[in-house]
Amino acid sequence: MLLNTVGYKNINERNYKLKNEIKDLINYLYFLIQKTFMELDTKYQRAKIIVEQLKSFYVQIFFSLGLFLIIVIRFNFYKPSTNFAMSTAISGALTNETMLILSNMNSQSLDAISTMSPQDLSFFNNPWFLILYVACIFSLFVIFKFIKFYRTKNKFIRSEKFNENLKKHMKMDEIPTVDEVHEKLNQDKSKEKKKFYYGILRIAVVIAILFLMKYYFSQSMLLDVVIFFAIFNMIYRYLFIFHLDKKLFKKKWEDRKIDEYMKQMA
């Protein structure tokens, strides 16, 4: 009788353990199936990336418009009267490649430029020429951001190979999960902040050079304006990089945009 009781007890314990193991196995299989379907449904991942590109496009508009207005306001109160001042401002706005081309111009071209009449140079002596030049440069940056956003939107919404495009965008062999997309976006923001700190060092060097130029070329009246632009540019960029999500784009706005793009997806 005692042996039968012990035997039944052992059988019940084994059955209880077996039932728990089967239950754990079912839960694990359910978790794998759920995870697989979540990975296959990449609407949120794609919408999240599109919204980030949209935010970057809006930031470029705000950034360019703000600096352009500062330039216009500054030139309304500070109008250079000498040709050398305007030529210094224009040369400061040119790229290194343009300066190299100008330095390699032959003497005949330089003589032709030097023989131009004051009426021919009057347009270049106008402060609005530099303002229009800067406006064109800012417009190119805005157009570039819009094209990048538009292409990303087409790849993730209208293209049939949206999952392949998602893997290429994330530089991954497998379809990225929601957590992996968030991690990648956070890494990109960290890299952007590091670039900002390196940019401070570069701006400090540029400002030091500008101060030396101003010391040795006192007739360059726009150097202090260029220095002001350089300092304001870093302050403006700091506000956008470190306070973008908190001030401009609230979480409610971001969630609403993600829902809108998810509804557009097949």
Explain the overall architecture:
By secondary structure, the chain is an all-alpha fold. The chain has one domain. It is 84% helix and 0% strand. It contains 12 helices and no strands. About 11% of the residues have low confidence. It comes from Methanobrevibacter curvatus. This is 2TM domain-containing protein. It holds the Pfam family 2TM.
Number of strands: 0
Beta-strand percentage range: under 5%
User: Could you spell the SSE succession in H and E letters?
Assistant: HHHHHHHHHHHH
Radius of gyration: 31 Å
Average pLDDT figure:
72
Count of helical stretches: 12
Largest sheet: none
Low-pLDDT stretches are 80-102, 105-110
Number of domains: 1
Helix content: over 70%
| Oligomeric state, counting identical vs distinct chains | single chain
- By secondary-structure content and strand pairing, the structural class works out as mainly alpha
Gap between N and C termini, in Å? 68 Å
Overall shape: elongated
Keywords: Membrane, Transmembrane, Transmembrane helix
Transmembrane segments: 57-77, 128-147, 196-216, 222-242
InterPro entries: 2TM_dom
Domain 2TM: 187-263
